[in-house]
Every structure is written in C-alpha cells, then in structure tokens.
Amino acid sequence: MARIVVIGSGMGAMAAAARLAVAGHRVVVYERGRTHGGGVGRFARDGFRFDTGPGLLHLPAVYRDLFVKTGKQTLEQSVELGQVDPASRHLFADGTDVRLPNASRAGVLQALDGAFGAGAGERWSDLVNRAREVWDATRRPLLEEPLRADWRVLGRDPYPAAPVRRGRLSGLFGRGGADGPPTLAAVARRELKDPRAVALLESHALAHGLDPRSAPAATTVLPYIEQTFGTWYVRGGMRALADALHERCRQRKVEFHFDAEVTGIVEKDGRAAGVELADGTVAEADAVVSGIDPALLPPLLGGQAPWREGDVRPEPGAGGGTPGRLTVLLALRGTRPQDATHRTVVHAPDREAELAAVFGDGHGLREPRPHPTVTVLRPDDPTVRPDEEHEAVTLTSVAAPHGPVDWTDGTAAEQAAQRLITAAEAAIPGLRGRMLWHEVRTPADTQAETGARGGAVPGPVLAGADGAFLRPANVTRLPGLYLAGGWAHPGGGLAHAGMSGALVAGLIVEGEDWRGSQ
Which residues are within 8 A (CB) of 286 and not within 5 positions of it... i.e. 6 or more apart? Predict the structure, then answer.
C-alpha cells in the first residue's frame, strides 16, 4: 500500500483519489479552500440553490465508469441523472427560434431545415459526419491514453476537407489547405453558409472559452459529442455530482483536509516524497498528485517547472489569459412555465464585437456595448427553488479574464450583468418584473475561490493548431509527481476531468509505460 498525497479537491483530483483508494492505496487530500469540488461550486440563499460552475454534463459514461469501478452504487444510484430535451433552444437577433432535440441526428436536421431553410440541416449533418472522423481519430490518443511522447502528431488537424479513406492515426492528420489548417470560423463559413448556422457552430467553441477565429477545425468534435451522447442534468445541479464523488472518496477511506494550503513539494532521492503545508508540517508520500494549474507548481518545486524536456507546456500567460465566466444568478417570483426550455442560448447581435471584447483588449468598442452570447439555464428541479411559486435561473457568458478587465470594479461588473439580464429577456419575457434579487459572479470571484489565474476556465484538449490546444502530460519530470485536472491532459470540463483522474490512477497503479484501458 502506497501513501498518496493529492493537492486540491477538484473533480479530476477526486476522481484520481477514489480510483487510487479502491486500488488499495492510502490517499490524503489537501485543499486550500473550505470545500471540495473546485470550480463545481454552489451558491445558496433564501431557499434558492445555484451551480456556480458547469450546469450540464456531457459524456456521462465517464462518471458511470468511475462509480462502477470504485463502489457498489452506480452513478444513477448515487445521483438522479436525466437527459435534457430539447437539448437547447437558440434565439437569434432576427427573431429566429430553433429548438434542437437531444441526441437525435434526424431531429436536429429537421429543426434546422425548419428554422434556416431547406438544405441547412443537411449541411449541418455533413459537417457533423466529418466531425465524427475527428472523434474516431482522436478519441483514444486525446482522451483515453496518457499524452504520447510523439504528441506533435496531434498538432495536425484531423478535420477532413472531404470524405477520405480511413487509415492509421498518422494518416488522418494534417489535411490543411495551401493556406494552412482551417479554423473553426473558416469551416463554419465555408460549409454552413447561413450566418445563423455559423453562429450556432461557433457557440459551441465560445461556451468553452475558445475563439472560433483561432480554434482549429477539429473543434467541430464538440457539437458532435453533444449531439451524439446527449446533454444531461443532475437533480440538485452539478454540485450534487461533486458531492456524490466526495462521498464516494470518503467511503473508500480517502482523508480530506480543508483550509490546508500546500506550499512546497518535498523531493528525496530524486523523487516526489511528500508535501509541505503552510503551517510548516510535512506530509510524507510515495507519490504526489497535483490537481492545480501546473503553471502554479514552480514555486512549490524550488523554481523548477514540472514538465519534461520536449513535453507540452503552457504558453506564456496561458491560464491567466484564458477567458472566464460572468454568471448572474436570478431568484424569480412566479412558477416556471411547463413549456420552458432548460437551456436557451441567446446569440449576440454583433459577434465580432463580442469576440473583440472577450479575446482582444476591448478598446475602441462603441458604447453602449451590445450584449454577448448568453446561456440561460432554467432547470425543472424543485430542489433548487424554495417552492413551486419561484424559479431559479442562471445566466452565463464568456468573459475576458480578470486582469484585462478589472472584475473587482462593482460598477463595471453590475453593468455587464445588466447586459446579460437584458439579453435573457428574449428567453424569459417579463424577466425584470419577476426578479426578487440577483447575484453577480465574475472571473475575480472564480480566482479568489479556486485559485485559477485570472478566473480562467480551462477548455478541453483539441487536435490541430500545432498543439496549442494540448495540455501538459500527466507524468512530470519529477518521478512520483503527477498532474490531474483541467489544466493537465486531457483538459477541462466535467467529463475530461474525470478522464484525467482515471489516467493518473492508471499511471500510478500500472506504471508509467501504461497506455490506457483497452
């Protein structure tokens, strides 16, 4: 039985902890904050409860596997999990209103033809078929295996310009044109034509904090995953999933220490041998799993970076320059209408202005600024509201990170929140008249609560763009030190965090030559 220390209690860290514990290791978690879950938080007031992180789950099979492998109760026995149908509603500035059914290719085709005109559904379907090739080519090397030593092959975009014969992995990458590999925005314009369909595709990138103008064409895999494997909600919100994972860890005898900041990683005989805490105590270990941003590790390693020579490493300013989330939590009076859609995306009327504000410096934009793309979540869940005469609603948009924008400026934050509320009125008529109160959460709040630089929210790994959308490997230059969580391979998001934990546990249990489950 080895002694394993885990730094942080985010979803990836807890996924690793649960798997390591069931393998017979003694696992101790040190968390600088007061609770578990990392970015999967909760805000509660006056009988209302809100997720402060992700509100929906994709690829639930990741957590089904985790719960099956770590205990007797399955995921569905631990939380109440259900599909969201329709998966999403999209509202555009010209009044177009389209509802996309959950996990139904034929239904989506029909809905897009009805909203955008004949042929729109077929063009979308063709694009998703090509995205399936991206999924088939990258699923294993990007999601199910530790990052390969020849990771640069993943820097070539696997999105096919036209149907091609399937081949080996190396033959599927690098089909860019004479002007280089296409971006998501270029693919959207070329293959979808209709600007509303373009906005629909680009919104999948934007939801993950990705700029469609620079994100690789392989980003098309994101709508493919959602459309193929469905959109899911956990009764009580995603925080209920974090609570269930924490409880599974406790059942497996994982030991948690909160308000316990790690200030150093102890090295002995060229290996990670434990951690030093802020109070000066040392916790010895045979291996250390770091669930925090790897870019924050050098001060804990005497100034040394954790990655090996030739490994993927964060770009200068990465993390801190990655967008965060602006979230507005709304407590509403009045019953939730029976025909209300769980998730509505209200698209920005001026996408270029939105992208400039989020990914550029934002200077020179006209005032008042137009509203950004806003996601409106209205769960039909009695556990998140005080009674049937009230409704809990969450508004989110991608926001420039704290730093380029001073999100501690209460006036600026409130003005931004009001733009979201104005946009959301398209989805909830009479919204302002129903408001009891609202709570604004900015990237500065995310930074304060989770330690994420700039309040950044990591996106999933993607092939293409010369590897710019890859994350550092789970194995580091220091034997016995491993990386888990959204800022390590295979990137951010609930499902990817669970995969990260599985990879780290496999490497520790099976050895560093392990290549993943077959």
Answer: 2, 3, 4, 273, 480
Residues sharing a CB contact under 8 Å with residue 24, sequence separation 6 or more, in sequence order: 1
- Residue 364: how many other CB atoms lie within 10 Å: 7
Write the single-letter amino acid at 279.
Answer: D
Q: Residue 350, exposed/middle/buried by CB under 10 A (0-12, 13-18, 19+)?
A: middle
Is 292 within 8 Å of 7 (Cβ atoms)? yes
C-alpha closest to that of 462 among 225, 270, 235, 119: 225
Q: What is the pLDDT of residues 61-89, one digit of tens each?
A: 999 999 999 999 999 999 999 999 999 99
Report phi then psi at 96, rounded to 5. Answer: -60, 135
Taking the complete model, does pTM exceed 0.90, yes or no?
yes
CB 349 within 8 A of CB 93: yes
pLDDT of residue 319: 58
Q: Which two tokens stand for residue 131?
A: 């995205």
Cα angle at 469 between 463 and 470, to 5 degrees? 80
Cis ω on the peptide bond leading into residue 368 (within 30° of 0)? yes
Q: Tell me: the pLDDT tens digits for 162-204?
A: 444 444 444 444 444 445 578 999 999 999 999 999 999 999 9
